[in-house]
Design a protein that fits this description.
The structure is a single chain. By secondary structure, the protein is an alpha/beta fold. The chain folds into two domains: about 1-160 and about 340-360, Nucleotidyltransferase, domain 5 (2-Layer Sandwich); about 165-340, Nucleotidyltransferase, domain 5, CATH 3.30.420.40. The chain has twelve helices and ten strands. It has helices at about 40, 50-70, 85-95, 110-125, 135-140, 160-165, 200-210, 215-225, 250-265, 275-305, 320-330, 350-360; strands at about 1-5, 10-20, 25-35, 100-105, 130-135, 165-170, 175-180, 190-195, 310, 335. The chain is globular. Bound molecules: 5'-O-[(R)-(carboxyoxy)(hydroxy)phosphoryl]adenosine (KG4) and zinc ion. Zinc ion (ZN) binds near residues 139 and 346. Zinc ion binds near residues 135, 139, 173 and 346.
Length: about 375
């Protein structure tokens, strides 16, 4: 089945064409996964401005669709970029699409609507079935997608899922932090989540305090590499509690108080610190966040006798986090399956994967923006 997927839940406009097959063990070939990032537009504001995101999505969606059509050749499915993209090429592409999938939530409502409306129009014009997808399921299933956008098969094609469950799913993004107990690819129970800020949000807020640009996650990771993670003892939030919930707001506030104390400045003024101080704060904050995530995941593995750990969401791009999880999984003798690097941050290929799995289950969602949709 060829799925044309659309993702506009936040500040990335993305359209993908994914070939999906299989039932118990779905496998995917990414024909194209185009992402247009709006980072430069939102950076001066220090975060995503919903109406600007909406404006950019409206502008970018038709451009990305045409670019996808120009790359798509029917008999020979390799890409070939052509300068002029005619409506005919879009028609040819759409003729070979079996289903359109679009993110309906969670996300920014004005941004979500742009994708939904675009998908609805396409489905109507080309008489295609349309499926609404959950952005978080996209992150959860991202581990199923192959590394490359050519004919490479899914990397875990030969793994037997039957023996790899139960699994622990860890979602770490800008809006969510949650732990799932999965008894199969499609059956799970949420066992814990953040009670306040998501871990990605904490990274972004700490970056702002350290006067690092948006998005803060990669910037804090970069600064952390040059700092000493044991220089400041920030709290490990909720680690002493016997549940799987998280709280990153307290950790963020500890960073704020530390900055106030070392600079003797008011909280609402920019803190002037040395590069060394900045790197040490970044490294110590990151260590606290990663230890919390890793420890809670480890406890879940032990309690539920898990065989595998799956992770997804933008913070998965953080190498220190994946290295810590990998090491812990090795010690616990469980499989660790992070997503391929090209499908970590928001992209439509993950939406195609989750929509395909939903279609196997005959799961349908309302075609309206659901900003608070959860798992
Ligand atoms: O999944 P995602 O692309 O969008 C949401 O669904 O939220 O995640 C974005 C989040 C941002 O908070 C960003 O700062 C964080 O992922 N992020 C990182 C890294 N790269 C992105 N956090 C820590 N380290 C990174 N390398
Ligand atoms: Zn996301």
């Amino acid at each position: 089945m060829n799925i044309l997927a659309i993702e506009t839940s936040c500040d990335d406009t993305s359209i993908a064409l994914v070939e999906a097959k299989g039932d118990k063990l779905p496998s995917f070939v990414i024909r194209a996964n185009l992402v247009s990032s709006q980072i430069k537009i939102h950076r001066p504001f220090g975060g995503v401005v919903p109406n600007l995101a909406k404006r950019e999505h409206i502008k970018n969606l038709p451009i990305l669709l045409k670019r996808l059509a120009s790359k798509y050749k029917i008999q020979d499915t390799r890409y070939k970029i052509q300068k002029h993209v005619s409506q005919h090429q879009v028609k040819t592409l759409m003729k070979n699409v079996d289903m359109i999938a679009v993110t309906v939530g969670p996300g920014l409502e004005p941004a979500l609507w742009t994708g939904i409306n675009f998908a609805k129009e396409l489905a109507k014009e080309y008489k295609k079935s349309l499926l609404g997808a959950n952005h978080l399921e996209g992150h959860l299933y991202s581990f199923l997608l192959p590394q490359k956008t050519e004919n490479q098969k899914s990397k875990i094609k030969n793994q037997k899922f039957g023996i790899a469950f139960p699994a622990i799913g860890l979602i770490v993004s800008g809006g969510h932090t949650m732990l799932l107990l999965m008894t199969s690819l499609t059956k799970w129970k949420k066992i814990g989540e953040t009670r306040d800020d998501a871990v990605g949000e904490a990274y972004d807020k700490v970056a702002r305090m350290l006067q690092l640009p948006y998005p803060g996650g990669p910037e804090v990771e970069c600064a952390a590499k040059k700092g000493d993670p044991n220089s400041i003892q920030f709290p490990r939030p909720m680690l002493d509690q016997k549940n799987y919930d998280f709280s990153f707001s307290g950790l963020k506030t500890s960073v704020l108080y530390h900055l106030r104390d070392i600079t003797k400045h008011e909280i609402n003024t920019p803190f002037i610190i040395s590069e060394e101080q900045r790197n040490n704060i970044a490294a110590s904050f990151q260590m606290a966040a990663i230890e919390t995530l890793t420890q809670k995941t480890m406890r879940a593995i032990k309690q539920f006798d898990a065989k595998m750990v799956l992770i997804g969401g933008g913070v998965t791009a953080n190498k220190s986090l994946t290295n810590a999880l990998k090491k812990m999984c090795k010690q616990e003798n469980v499989l660790f399956i992070p997503p391929a690097r090209n499908v970590i941050t928001d992209n439509a290929a993950t939406i195609a994967a989750s929509a395909y799995i939903n279609s196997l289950q005959k799961k349908k969602r309302r075609m309206v923006a659901q900003s608070n949709l959860t798992l």
